Amino acid sequence: MRAFINWASWVLEYLSIIFLAWIGWCLDFDIKEAESASLLSKAILETRAAGPILVIAAAISNFLFRFLSWRTQTKHTAQIALDRISTEVLDDFRKKVFPGVGSMKEPVHHNRVTLFKHFSTAVFLPRHAWKSTLWPWGFWRWPWSGWLVVSMRSGHVTQTATAIFLCPDDPENGEGVAGQAWSRGAYRVTGLPNFEYAEYPRYARWWMCWCMELMKFENSKVIAFRDFKERVTNYADSTNTSWYCVLKRIRSKKSCPNDILGVMIENSKGEPWGVLVMDSSNSIHCIDSNDSKFRSAFTTLTRKLRNMGAID
Amino acid sequence: MKIIDSKWIKVEPSELVNDVIEEKRNGVQIHIGVSPYNIPSAIRGSYDEAIQKFVIAFQYLDTETKEKTKASLSNNLTLEIGIHSGRIYRVLIDVIKLGVEDLRLSVSVDQIDDAFREFSEHGARRDTRSRSMAPLRAAFKQKRGKLFPENVTTQD
Lengths: 312, 156
Fold this sequence. Notes:
A: 47% helix
């Protein structure tokens, strides 16, 4: 379906260009030659009559179809192959920095390595990453505020992640562990609350508990609700994310990592390029970034990614 | 005349970095570290006859491919700094020849450390640079005894 939309928008985009050329030709056409009652003459006269509106309509259509074509574009075969090789490189790195991960029968997504690329500008944010409905980039933030976008991830699952973190020039406001690692070089959060068996309270229960709490009413449900709320707040504060963002993860049954390490990554010139994030949702945690094994694996990873052109 | 045949002295990164640890509620800890690129993995002190200077060189995880720039702090001391990273790669120190093979540094070892501190506290983003240069200063302090061979006199 996506491929068909892409193809259709590509065709329509070129048709709109041809139509613009037709309008131009009609407007330039010598009117005396179009006096005959042929079908072509009628079409030319009709086009000339509605010329300005048609030019605007064709230009807008061209822009819209080009945008649609860009949004629905699919990856080239070479790009898909490069992505697979890059993922394998990340998988190798994952085995080295999460000791014992290969031998245990843990789900792959419980110990992940994610590479984020830094973009100075991000005009289109995915809906889930919107900071507010009216202004997606957040209060007093702009498309050019600086953003970290998922570039690739280890494993074969959670590959369609579209996480975007704000990393502005003021380091204190960097969003998430990735945003903080970008400004500080290395950043780790350990001992985060576990939400594995947490039950997300439905809206009605949420409001009920909230009202009961306001009325200073104490029972097991209110205590459990208060505990849940505190843990969510603690998680959000510690990871520099929003409360709502953590709640959404729990509601959609996504795992919330209990240990996250972010390390800034540089390109071959020595300029900051992005951030590498290692997160774990089980008891196997990433080794320290100052550990010689980590440094050795990190050097190999960056060298391979640079050689492949994944890091420019 | 080859005065010093020096080798790279390896340093243990974990001994150079002290992460800032912030305690949060309910056992959550935040470790603020330094980028692995800014932690030197080896250090070397040698006399470069071509430029007639004593050179303290730092080896990092990654070496920049682009040309390095120089920052002269005083008449006797020059720092070679990465253009993009701002990392110190070499410190060039003027020497005074005492005899045929004996040298004396024109600056004291403490002056070199002061130069590092001065550089880290200069210009924009002082906080970040000061933190990222801490491992380099620690490496220098830790290995300063092994950097200068017997034929080089240091002023402590």
